[in-house]
């Protein structure tokens, strides 16, 4: 074995900057998309040949989730900057300076619609998946961004459809999470200002 | 010390991109340049660069107890008063530091002259620690460099050891500004080494860091208890979350006390205490207005990559680099010419990990002011 000289590292290896390693870290194969449905209202849901009671139940679940999962903003201006003027409401949560704000619910995602127009195979497939506790799409509220009023998005900003009706979603991408009540964007402003003053500056290191 | 032309490795650009070095070319200008290398003798490395690096590092650290006790010096260094106690505390709690880089003017003869300390957000780490290391191995394998050639470059070994040994909270977060590919490359490399040393490491964009009731949090709202930030402290102290830095239970790399050393104001303070030291240049605080005399360089207290530096050579040639760092105080430093090799001026960046010298990286520019666009060239040690 060759003895490495003294002044340099014994090895200089990378494990995650190289693509092969990145693939390995990402692990198993791609997740399959499953069918879910997107609606503005429970009536619209029923108009797509879904049982009205199920539509109402899915809508009620989404409504109940809405205050928990909707993105929260420390003030109305920041919320409206993302969702549009008049599109935000007071959230039940409070911070030191007052209430949080959140976007209004603009529709809902129905993932558990079991009896759509008598499509039995679909029903069995989804029931089996639900029983296995995976590949399920929870009923949940949807939102629309100020600069993209045609797209329904989940509370975590995943686009799911641009029109009402059936759509394909990856279950892992649409799992609702309680919104964190964090203020964000409090670092980085100097970089933006200085980048505007000196666009060539490629680094904030030195 | 000499510059020697060498054939670049065929296809090195594709290789660079396959190992995460997307910024080998910046704005269509070469950044990594392997059409030549610098060769040093072992004595030049050990006596003229390695030993002075460790000595200057200790001298700089020795200034800190005096600075944190002196309101005058804290003011001279432009440290905002609301953060004086936090700077003191971070030093007195002995918060660990990871790395830094000193820049030297050195031509192979005589003492290397310290130009500045980059002790908060030093970059060119990946180029030094990984890419020039691989370059040497490759060129030896191809027979273009002798098997006995070495390199002053123990960066990766020392960083891996530091991540394994420093008392860091877990998970430990790494952060940089979203828009900078170069900064992301540096942070990716550090994270890669941290992962290899067994540290639970995660990345978060600097702009995505959140604040809940005065605690910095990640995207899920979990507290960030350890954060490496490739973003200048002096920026962070002016931004919306500046107050959160004081209240948050977060251990930072680099720690807040590094703000004292990454500051050009450390240069006049070093000169005051160690006047005449062979590796130091005369340096003084400056009002930023008085006309500069020939043979002097003016630098902002806080600036990066040569920005806003102004110099007049002893022959009266004036050079000025524009930039976005116009809002701090200034220092002036005696001009030490960078050595010229062909058409290029050469600067040596000497790394410190923990308190040990850890290798060098070489930058070349067509002007006397080394900038973010300056080329990076590899080096070898061969007697």
From TrEMBL, chain A:
Show which residues constitute the signal peptide: 1-24
The source's superkingdom equals Bacteria
Q: Where is this region: Disordered?
A: 118-206
Q: Which InterPro entries match?
A: Biofilm_formation_YgiB
Q: Where is the composition biased (Polar residues)?
A: 151-170
* Ranges of Low complexity composition bias in the record: 122-132, 189-206
Q: Which controlled-vocabulary keywords does the entry list?
A: Lipoprotein, Signal
Q: Which Pfam families match?
A: DUF1190
Q: What is this protein called?
A: Putative lipoprotein
State the organism named in the record: Alishewanella agri BL06
TrEMBL record, chain B:
**From the Swiss-Prot or TrEMBL record, what is one GO molecular function term?**
ATP binding
**Gene3D superfamilies named in the record:** 3.30.1490.330
Source organism, top-level taxon = Bacteria
InterPro entries to which the protein is assigned, alphabetical:
GSPS_pre-ATP-grasp-like_dom (IPR005494), PreATP-grasp_dom_sf (IPR016185)
UniProt keywords (A-Z) are: ATP-binding, Ligase, Magnesium, Metal-binding, Nucleotide-binding
Tell me where in this chain the Glutathionylspermidine synthase pre-ATP-grasp-like domain is found.
12-381
What is this protein identified as? Glutathionylspermidine synthase
């Amino acid at each position: 074995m060759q003895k490495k000289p003294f002044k340099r590292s014994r090895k200089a290896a990378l494990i995650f900057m190289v693509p092969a390693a990145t693939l390995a870290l990402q692990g198993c194969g791609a997740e399959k998309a499953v069918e879910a449905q997107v609606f503005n209202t429970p009536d619209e849901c029923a108009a797509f040949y879904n049982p009205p009671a199920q539509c109402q139940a899915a809508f009620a679940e989404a409504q109940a989730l809405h205050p928990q999962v909707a993105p929260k903003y420390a003030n109305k201006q920041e919320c409206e900057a993302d969702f549009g003027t008049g599109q935000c409401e007071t959230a039940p949560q409070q911070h030191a300076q007052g209430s949080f704000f959140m976007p209004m619910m603009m529709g809902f995602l129905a993932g558990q619609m079991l009896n759509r127009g008598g499509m039995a195979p679909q029903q069995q497939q989804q029931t089996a998946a639900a029983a296995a506790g995976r590949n399920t799409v929870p009923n949940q509220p949807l939102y629309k961004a100020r600069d993209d009023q045609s797209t329904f998005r989940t509370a975590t900003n995943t686009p799911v459809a641009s029109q009402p009706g059936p759509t394909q979603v990856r279950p892992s991408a649409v799992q609702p999470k309680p919104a964190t009540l964090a203020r964000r964007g409090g670092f980085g402003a100097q970089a933006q200002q200085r980048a505007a003053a000196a666009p060539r500056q490629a680094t904030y290191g030195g | 010390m000499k510059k020697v032309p060498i054939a670049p490795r065929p296809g090195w650009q594709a290789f660079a991109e396959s190992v995460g070095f997307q910024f080998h070319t910046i704005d269509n200008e070469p950044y990594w340049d392997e059409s030549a290398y610098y060769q040093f003798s072992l004595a030049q490395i050990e006596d003229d660069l390695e030993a002075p690096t460790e000595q200057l590092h200790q001298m700089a650290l020795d200034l800190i107890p005096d600075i944190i006790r002196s309101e005058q010096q804290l003011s001279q260094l432009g440290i905002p008063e609301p953060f004086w106690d936090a700077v003191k505390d971070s030093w007195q709690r002995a918060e660990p530091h990871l790395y830094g880089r000193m820049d030297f003017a050195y031509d192979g003869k005589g003492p290397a002259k310290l130009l500045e300390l980059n002790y908060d957000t030093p970059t060119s780490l990946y180029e030094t620690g990984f890419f020039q290391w691989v370059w040497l191995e490759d060129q030896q394998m191809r027979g273009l460099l002798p098997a006995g050639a070495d390199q002053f470059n123990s960066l990766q070994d020392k960083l891996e050891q530091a991540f394994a040994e420093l008392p860091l909270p877990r998970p430990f977060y790494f952060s940089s500004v979203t828009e900078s590919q170069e900064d992301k490359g540096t942070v990716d490399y550090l994270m890669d080494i941290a992962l290899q040393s067994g540290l639970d490491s995660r990345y978060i964009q600097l702009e995505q860091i959140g604040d809940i009731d005065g605690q910095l949090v990640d995207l899920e709202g979990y507290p960030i208890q350890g954060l490496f930030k490739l973003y200048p402290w002096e920026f962070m102290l002016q931004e919306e979350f500046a107050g959160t830095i004081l209240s948050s239970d977060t251990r930072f790399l680099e720690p807040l006390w590094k703000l004292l050393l990454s500051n050009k104001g450390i240069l006049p303070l070093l000169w005051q205490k160690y006047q005449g030291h062979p590796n130091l240049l005369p340096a003084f605080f400056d009002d930023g207005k008085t006309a500069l005399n020939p043979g002097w360089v003016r630098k902002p207290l806080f600036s990066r990559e040569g920005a806003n530096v102004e110099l007049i050579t002893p022959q009266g040639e004036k050079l000025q680099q524009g930039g976005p760092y116009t809002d701090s105080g200034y220092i002036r430093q005696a001009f030490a010419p960078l050595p010229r090799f062909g058409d290029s001026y050469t600067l040596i960046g000497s790394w410190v990990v923990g308190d040990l010298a850890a290798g060098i990286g070489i930058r070349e520019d067509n002007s006397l002011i080394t900038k973010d666009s300056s080329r990076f060239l590899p080096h070898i040690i061969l007697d």
